Amino acid sequence: MTVPDAIVVGSGPNGLAAAVTLAQAGLAVTVLEADHEIGGGARTAELTVPGLKHDTCSAVHPFAVASPFLAGLPLSDFGLTWRFTEIDMVHPLPDGSAGVLTTSLEDTAAGLGIDGPRWRAVFGPLVRSFDTIVSDVLGPLVRIPDHPIAMLRLGIRAGLPASVLARMFRTEQARAILGGCAAHIWRPFNRPASASVGTVMIAGGHRHGWPVAEGGSGAIAGALAGLARSLGVVIETGIRVTSLSELPQTRITLFDTGPSAFADIAGNRLAPRRAKAYRTFRYGPAAFKLDLAVQEGIPWASEAARRAGTVHLGGTMAQIGEAERQITKGIMPARPFMLIGQQYLADPQRSVGDIHPVWMYAHVPHGYTGDATGAMLDQIEHYAPGFRDRIVATHVTTPRELAARNPNYVGGDIVGGRNDLRGLAARPVLALDNYATGIPGMYLCSASTPPGAGTHGMCGHLAARRALAGLEEP
Q1: Which domains, ranges and CATH numbers included, belong to the chain?
Q2: pTM of the complete model
Q3: Cβ distance 14 to 452 under 8 Å?
Q4: Secondary structure letter of residue 3 according to DSSP
Q5: Is 80 exceeded by the pLDDT of residue 142?
């Protein structure tokens, strides 16, 4: 067997992005995947009713469509088509109103009444500069940005606690949009930089939208794999790497794995200090996931929610902030923050007749062993009376099952690590080079490296670029 120039362990979007980047540079690359199916968090399966297509983890992709790496690839030639809903996100509120987010900055602002001018003032400059700064945004935090002035403008907003940025707005609707997006960082809203992910999601969404992949998120991994194979990459499934001794000597080896998993694989090859850092890497709260088959869809009281690709639930921003505070303390909230995906509205082929796949998960404490099903269904029923009567089938995935399916999801953490200031800056360790492991030629490229979670491929792409640069070092 011919030994390749490079091996990539793991075939999630980051592993495949790394393989493509290396192959584009002329290297012979082999990808090794432990499972019998590629894709990591970007997979699609029939979990409830035969023919109904459910995304098993990643579902809606504002960061993927904005990714400077993915945007530069001919993925449409390999079957990837983005589909958009009329409304990107709706956040129903207890009083019967809702915050409505669309791709159009102007339409969103117009729907926010007295907060419209302030919404334009806060997000307008970021939307206009988004394509300029996106490479800085989707990169390591600790470095000199290519566009410092534009990044400073973003940092003034994103560096704030979400609760402080929310004071810019007077309506609960505007605050709810911000709060639901800010909750994607899985942190209490009174912490510094807790506005960061939400700010970028909103600005990027206004620039590029919140699309889904036609046929399911597995189409993203499928397109990356198709492109990789066209470049000569060999992808082998059903091969679990447990030790570096199982790998041949190559010029580059990249690992689309978590830090602790890599430490187990590397064993005593890893320097003691780095091994300790990887083994004590801090993971964040967990997801509790439900996939439902729902006849005629969810009967939301909010008419806008019936047309939205994503629905955020959790009440007001203050209520969401309290739920997020609780999960970081290990407490299960009575009303957890929830994300609901109605991808079939943009991609009807996922449905079977009038039975539609509904994707959702709730934020729960790390390693949560209880059953959040009842709390999740009750919360939807509150905003969509009669919803339970439409459920045809239910598939539950607990945090433990998420971790069993994908070892990178330690304790049910699907974002690859805690997103506090330390976790954002030192991902996975505080270093000028976040990807190098200290073992020559070996690099991490999972969501536990910058820029973190999201189906954008940037962790893999940037790690591969760092590895290529390493080949030129004396």
Answers
A1: 6-77+213-281+416-471 (3.50.50.60), 82-209+284-405 (3.90.660)
A2: 0.94
A3: no
A4: P
A5: no
